[in-house]
Automatic annotation (TrEMBL):
<dbReference type="GO" id="GO:0030248">
    <property type="term" value="F:cellulose binding"/>
</dbReference>
<dbReference type="GO" id="GO:0052689">
    <property type="term" value="F:carboxylic ester hydrolase activity"/>
</dbReference>
<dbReference type="Pfam" id="PF00734">
    <property type="entry name" value="CBM_1"/>
</dbReference>
<dbReference type="GO" id="GO:0005576">
    <property type="term" value="C:extracellular region"/>
</dbReference>
<dbReference type="InterPro" id="IPR029058">
    <property type="entry name" value="AB_hydrolase_fold"/>
</dbReference>
<feature type="domain" description="CBM1">
    <location>
        <begin position="293"/>
        <end position="329"/>
    </location>
</feature>
<keyword id="KW-1015">Disulfide bond</keyword>
<feature type="compositionally biased region" description="Low complexity">
    <location>
        <begin position="259"/>
        <end position="286"/>
    </location>
</feature>
<dbReference type="InterPro" id="IPR000254">
    <property type="entry name" value="CBD"/>
</dbReference>
<dbReference type="InterPro" id="IPR035971">
    <property type="entry name" value="CBD_sf"/>
</dbReference>
<keyword id="KW-0378">Hydrolase</keyword>
<dbReference type="GO" id="GO:0005975">
    <property type="term" value="P:carbohydrate metabolic process"/>
</dbReference>
<dbReference type="Pfam" id="PF01083">
    <property type="entry name" value="Cutinase"/>
</dbReference>
<feature type="region of interest" description="Disordered">
    <location>
        <begin position="255"/>
        <end position="286"/>
    </location>
</feature>
<keyword id="KW-0732">Signal</keyword>
<protein>
    <submittedName>
        <fullName>Acetylxylan esterase</fullName>
    </submittedName>
</protein>
<dbReference type="InterPro" id="IPR000675">
    <property type="entry name" value="Cutinase/axe"/>
</dbReference>
Length: 329
């Protein structure tokens, strides 16, 4: 069979066409790259613009269902004081071998929790490097935040790495840390508040010094059997009501003055009876009855075993995330 070859004229035309197509493709590629660059820049700018001035991390106590647990009291006080602030709960087992939390040992839970605090804080700080951060930990939640914020390891749970796992830029932006009923309590560290003069069941070693000591308040009273050597478990659960306002005052003193808290008194009308409350500077209608202590946006508002507020302040609604945790969104 004879082979047919293209003529020189045809080859010339093909060569010219290929050059035109190449130029056009290059222009299209350049335009696409430029467009993608604009989209990335816009997305990056939008992410930065959506960053709050203040963000709070809350860590719950052993066996408390997913969410903030007893840290919620202080978390909500801060959210209410600083409109526009946001919060998130540390996701970790919060267990001590009990069946209701999956049987995870206390040591394993605390190790996971320490890593979870560092991961959550580092991730948020990378995304929002200018946001001021606040830590609020209760009981085991206080222990894992203590470990992550101060480093030093924790031989009580087998944590041998003594480095501070939270990155330096995030440590700089953590303006205040509140620990309540922290088993790592040992008297007399400079940031300790309360009547306990001994130590918890997982104390820091004698002479320990936290690099960020000036940013911490750790609350513990003598009758507490977990952060001290008492025998009254009810004291352990009462720090939010006993020291909540004191903790808020400490946080206020540490946050920069550019985010002044709201103290405007407004009238909130609710079906079933009017209420006069101190809230964000708005007048709103909130369904649900007596709601003068509703959770702020991002706060917890329900879930199995939840005993705190089950309503949300204006601008957010209570939405179930799972059976154990509902959040104002």
């Amino acid at each position: 069979m004879a082979h047919v070859y293209p003529s020189p004229t045809t080859l010339s035309g093909l060569s010219t066409l290929s050059g035109l197509e190449f130029s056009r493709n290059m222009l299209l590629t350049a335009a696409t790259i430029a467009l993608l660059g604009q989209q990335v820049t816009a997305a990056h700018l939008q992410a930065r613009q959506s960053c709050p001035a203040i963000h709070i991390f809350g860590a719950r106590e052993t066996t408390a269902p997913a969410g903030y647990g007893s840290s919620n009291t202080v978390v909500n006080l801060i959210l209410n004081a600083y409109p526009g602030s946001t919060a998130e709960a540390i996701n970790y087992p919060a267990c001590g071998g009990q069946s209701q939390c999956g049987g995870v040992t206390y040591a394993n839970s605390a190790v996971q929790g320490t890593a979870a605090v560092a991961s959550a804080v580092n991730s948020f700080n990378t995304r929002c490097p200018q946001t001021q951060l606040v830590l609020v930990g209760y009981s085991q939640g206080g222990q894992i935040m203590d470990n992550a914020f101060c480093g030093g390891g924790d031989t009580n749970i087998g944590l041998t790495n003594t480095a501070v796992p939270i990155q330096a830029s995030a440590i700089n932006m953590i303006k205040a840390a509140i620990f309540m009923g922290d088993p790592r309590y040992i008297y007399p560290l400079p940031y300790e508040v309360g009547t306990c003069r001994t130590q918890g069941f997982a104390p820091r070693p004698a002479g320990f010094s936290c690099p960020s000591a000036s940013k911490i308040q750790s609350y513990c009273d003598a009758p507490d059997p977990y952060c001290c050597n008492g025998n009254n478990a009810q004291v352990h659960q009462g720090y939010g009501s006993t020291y909540g306002q004191q903790a808020l005052a400490f946080v206020r003193g540490k946050l920069n003055g550019s985010t002044n808290p709201t103290t405007t008194t407004t009238r909130t009308t609710t079906p079933g009876g009017g209420q006069q409350t101190t809230t964000r500077a708005t007048t709103t209608t909130t369904p649900g009855g007596n709601n003068n202590n509703c959770s702020a946006k991002w706060g917890q508002c329900g879930g199995i075993s939840w005993t705190g507020p089950k309503c949300c302040q204006s601008g957010s609604t209570c939405q179930a995330q799972n059976a154990y945790y509902s959040q104002c969104l």
